[in-house]
Design brief:
The protein is α/β, with parallel strands linked by helices. It contains 20 helices and 17 strands.
Length: 703
């Protein structure tokens, strides 16, 4: 991102003293050279070689310290202060007590370079040096004193005055320096804290996935984070800073954003709204944008700050939720009408069969009866499609060999799709078995192949294939199924293909691209529902002119999952056992009773579960089979079966239903081995199913 204005660095006290030492050494050396030349000349004239030697040593020491910058600071500073002390002590010997000014300089320099305590120590050393050298006679007398008057007492007075002045100067300089150091240290801590906060803020802004930016009063970008640059496929912040939204978005998009900016810069409001933009790849993205004015100390607006969060995925999820809710609503509608509608169709089928039995005696009714029967069959198929779409159809899955099923169904499909389409099977022999409803699997294959045929009016290629797949967590999550081993079924064609908009809605109920009267729009919705209800997933890939590929993922069946798809011999229809028929619809109950009695069974009837229990407990002989509707008032079919089997364990159970919204059914508690007859059914179909249940060696059970 563009860097936030950095705080000016402040040197620490140690660094500050290093700078002072450098300045003092430079001044002492360059100005000392001039003094040195004059001092040496005077010393030579006065025949004082020792003074000339001292001056030479001092100026050489200063020059050496100026050059030796790699030496530790304290060593350089201490050496420089000692050189000043040596010069002051030497001048005290050869020049006189007036040279005590050098000793004062020694104390002040020590305070300045080494601290207040070192400065006080230097002042004490200077005073002691002045007094001792004076008393011992090494210090020269000034002109204002006579030799006999300049005794130890006199030197004491001089020393005391010197010590007073030296201490005052040292204390003053030291106090000032200590105060400045404290202020400097406080300022450094404050600046370091600000720098840490600034660094933390910069890191926070840089690492946030949200787009963060600031703009000036001209609505030009000032600060942008990496997410903002990534949104525009930029890598250098200078490509964005100083520009406006008109440089990056279409005019209409930029105008909407700019109007929001002007509103915020006017200080009237904070904007929090969803904005749609199109990126450089042509993909539409949605952003939830919040903008607020930036104000200075006086409250004047100086710019704005904005935060934009990419909510494209959230919008997609919202759309998926709306789609799911719409599909759920249609599913509830389908389930709601299925019960009554399938009961009515059962009656139609039953009595059309009764009429059909009399067509030989009354030939003129044959055609109307067949028309009634065909219409009822089409209505039943439509209801099954609705229930399959809404995932409320009763599955009777079996563990089967998918390749074998496809091969058998393929013989019929090859005749269905026509000779102008090249039909081929590419089946992997190593795939595992799957657990699906064979009848519904046939419906899936038929619908996909018919759609493929319609997409190739001029002919083409249709291929059905199978292979194995191991779905990872990421791939399975995208398909909304569990990870693990799957058998993959693909149906691909070389037809006209579909646009992305069509693909997006392809599984919606009643959505169709076919003309009026050529499709209900439920075929693919039914396929979607069957696959989902079977624990699998379906994915479509298509583009205009490039054909379509439907990919179905079916979970691999466990080794103990139900029965296989072995052929069951057709049962004998007639019988003489006792049947307890429980049906809440009077007409359906009467028809079923008449049918079963016609096939020789002893039939007991009940209108609901409570009445059925009374019959069970009052009937002297045992009941051979319980034929019950699933959804009934007071007591459901599964609940009734549980109670009856607890009292008479040998009772077989046959469930009937045209409506599967009951929780027992929806939650899959009716297992595959439980006998089930889907409404609408024909009279013979009912008789065959009852016979099959009675002849089966294994009793049906309710989980």
């Amino acid at each position: 991102m563009t860097r936030i204005a950095a705080v000016a660095p402040i040197e620490s006290p140690a660094n500050w003293r290093v700078g002072v030492l450098e300045v003092v050494l430079k001044v002492a050396f360059f100005f000392g050279v001039v003094v040195y030349l004059a001092s040496v000349a005077v010393a030579v004239d006065a025949k004082r070689p020792a003074l000339a030697l001292l001056d030479t040593l001092v100026i050489a020491t200063v020059g050496g310290l100026l050059m030796a910058k790699r030496l530790p600071y304290h060593l350089r500073a201490t050496t420089f202060c000692l050189a000043a002390y040596a010069l002051g002590a030497g001048l005290l010997v050869w020049v006189g007590s007036v040279s005590q000014i050098y000793l004062i300089g020694f104390s002040v320099l020590t305070t300045l370079l080494l601290g207040f305590r070192a400065g006080l120590a230097a002042a004490i050393v200077s005073a002691i040096t002045l007094f001792v050298m004076g008393v011992l006679g090494f210090g020269r007398l000034d002109a204002m004193f006579q030799a006999q008057e300049f005794t130890a007492k006199g030197w004491g007075v001089v020393t005391m005055n010197f010590a007073l002045v030296n201490t005052l100067l040292t204390t003053g300089v030291g106090t000032v320096l200590m105060t400045l150091e404290k202020a400097l240290a406080s300022e450094i801590r404050t600046r370091e804290s600000l720098e840490r906060e600034r660094s933390l803020l910069r890191t926070f802004i840089d690492t946030l996935p949200d787009v963060i930016f600031t703009k000036d009063m001209d609505a030009r970008f000032v600060v942008v984070n990496p997410a903002a640059m990534a949104m525009l496929d930029l890598t250098d912040p200078t490509d964005m800073v100083g520009h406006t939204v008109f440089d990056f978005f279409t005019h209409d998009e930029a105008r909407k954003i700019h109007l929001d900016d002007l509103e915020v810069l006017a200080g009237r409001t904070v904007i929090n709204r969803e904005v749609s933009t199109r990126d450089t790849h042509g993909t539409d993205n949605w952003y939830l944008t919040l903008k607020a004015p930036i104000r200075d100390e006086s409250g004047t607006v100086t710019g704005l700050i904005g935060i934009s969060r990419n909510i494209t995925e959230r919008k997609k999820l919202e759309e998926q939720l709306r789609q799911a809710q719409k599909m759920e609503a249609v599913g509830q509608l389908a389930g709601g009408i299925a019960h009554d509608f399938n009961n009515l169709l059962t009656i139609v089928f039953g009595y059309s069969d009764v009429l059909r039995a009399h067509t030989d005696a009354v030939p003129e009714i044959r055609e109307p009866v067949e028309a009634i029967n065909d219409a009822a069959a089409r209505a039943a198929a439509l209801t099954r499609q609705l229930l399959a779409f809404s995932r409320q159809s009763m599955l009777q899955p079996k563990v089967l060999d998918l390749n074998e099923t496809i091969t058998e169904t393929g013989r019929m499909l090859s005749r269905l799709i026509g000779e102008n389409i090249q039909f081929s099977l590419v089946l992997d022999p190593s795939i595992a078995r799957v657990r699906v409803d064979p009848g519904q699997l046939d419906q899936v294959l038929m619908n996909l192949c018919v759609n493929a045929r319609d997409a190739m009016p001029g002919g083409g290629t249709l291929r059905i294939g199978t292979h194995r797949a191991e779905l990872t967590e990421t791939r399975a999550t995208a398909l909304e199924i569990a990870p693990g081993p799957y058998v993959v079924l693909t149906v691909s064609d070389s037809g006209i293909g579909m646009t992305p908009d069509v693909v997006e809605h392809i599984f919606e109920p009643f959505f169709t691209t076919k003309g009026v009267g050529t499709g209900t729009g439920l075929g693919l919705a039914m396929v979607f529902g069957i696959v989902r209800q079977s624990g699998g997933a379906i994915h479509v890939q298509s583009a205009p002119g490039e054909g379509t590929i439907f990919t179905i993922f079916l979970p691999v069946a466990s080794t103990n999952s139900g029965s296989t798809n072995g052929k069951v011999p057709p049962p004998t229809v007639r019988g003489g056992e006792v049947v307890l028929l429980v049906e809440d619809d009077t007409h359906v109950r009467d028809l079923a009773e008449s049918t079963l009695r016609g096939f020789g069974y002893d039939v007991l009837t009940a209108g609901d579960g409570r009445e059925a229990l009374e019959i069970v407990r009052s009937h002297r002989a045992s009941i051979d089979v319980l034929v019950t509707d699933v959804v009934m008032p007071h007591l459901s079919g599964p609940e009734l079966a549980t109670i009856v089997q607890a009292e008479q364990p040998d009772v077989r159970v046959l469930f009937m239903s045209g409506y599967t919204d009951d929780a027992v059914v929806r939650q899959g508690l009716l297992k595959a081995e439980v006998a089930f007859l889907q409404k609408p059914y024909t009279p013979r179909g009912l008789a065959e199913k009852v016979r099959h249940v009675l002849d089966s060696r294994r009793s049906a059970s309710v989980s």
